[in-house]
Predict the 3D structure of the following.
Amino acid sequence: YGYVARLPNKSIVLGSAIRRLNSVASNTPVLEDLVRPVLDELVKITGETASLYQIADDMRICSYRSETHHRLREHIPEGTIFPLDLGAAGHVLRRFSDIDPTQPLFPDDLPITSYGERDPHTAAIATPVYGADRRLIGAVSVSGPKFRFGLDQMSEFSPVVVRLAKKLSRSLGAVVD
């Protein structure tokens, strides 16, 4: 039922059902109330699925998600866990989990993109989201099937993802340039 999972190395870990319960219990309504409208706005602008991923131990969890209106889409329920070393959101969470206080919160090389890395049929764009005291809250991401999410869409959507991640970060107490 998803309460335990076996990793490729045969070790057993808590499964996605536990993570879903934990994410529901540990996230305050304030965070959800701020995140969901931003994800909905990303979906409205891009036409693709928007998510907020957060670090969960040595993995990442899909904490919030707003689905595209397209019938063909990647099905990832809230609470699903993934490794940190694959996909745009995973790379963001690893890179920015311990940010140097002298670094800008949103360096010029953002967003981070992936094209068929975690899933051979999916592309994604992600950038960090911060709270007060430069604390990483998560990675906001837009993803979709590669046939709808080519280089033109990557270029078009990238500034939107960064702009809305900055907006969300400000609402969560981060000081953003």
